[in-house]
Amino acid sequence: MPVIRSSDAVTHEIHGARFVSYATPRTGSKELCAWRGEIPAGTKAPAHTVNREEIFHLLIGDLLITLDGHTERISAGDTVIVPSGATLAVENPTGHTAVSWVTTSVGLEAELADGTRITPPWAN
After folding, report:
1. Which of 25, 34, 89, 123 has the most CB atoms around its CB within 10 Å?
2. Sign (positive/negative) of CA torsion 104, 21, 6, 94?
3. Based on the number of CB atoms within 10 Å of its own CB, is 47 exposed (0-12), middle (13-18) or buried (19 or more)?
4. Where does the pLDDT of residue 84 fall: very low under 50, low under 70, confident under 90, or very high at 90 and above?
5. Whether 94 contacts 60, CB under 8 Å
6. Cβ(51)–Cβ(85) under 8 Å?
7. Secondary structure (3-state) at 109
8. Which DSSP string corresponds to 66-78?
């Protein structure tokens, strides 16, 4: 039975946020990836278009989520379904770190507005 201990999770940092990956092909997951996102106060991540559906669940804090140009404030306990092909931006306008849990399928890639493609190691 694959058990990924918190001490074995791999941490990545990009655009001011921290991603702590648990379920990936490297840890034994064949179809899904899951990670904890830590979004510090004042962080505004660049908009990016995803090629896989994501389920974004906010565990702690408040965030502004912009999905295809529509912005919503979400709070702890809220879940956002990000469709494949959608453009997503995440902003933490508060004074506290927000913590999320994200699940998607293996093979997630993101494209920034300037055309740069990112293959996040925490999702592949």
Report:
1. 123
2. negative
3. middle
4. very high
5. no
6. yes
7. coil
8. EETTEEEEEETT-
pTM given for the model: 0.93
pLDDT at residue number 49: 97
The letter for the amino acid at 68 is D
Cβ burial, residue 30 (10 Å; 0-12/13-18/19+): exposed
CA dihedral 119, 120, 123, 124 (to 10 degrees): 50
pLDDT surpassing 90 at residue 81: yes
Q: Is the pLDDT of residue 87 over 80?
A: yes
Q: What are the backbone angles phi and psi of residue 68, rounded to the nearest 5°?
A: 50, 45
Q: Using CA of residue 73, residue 70, residue 78, residue 90, what is the dihedral sign? A: negative
Please give the full DSSP string across 9-62, using - where no structure is assigned.
PEEEEETTEEEEEEESGGGT-SSEEEEEEEE-TT-BPPPEEESS-EEEEEEESE
Q: How many residues does the chain have?
A: 124
Burial (CB count <10 Å: 0-12, 13-18, 19+), residue 108: buried
- Going by the DSSP 8-state scheme, the letter that residue 107 receives in this structure is T
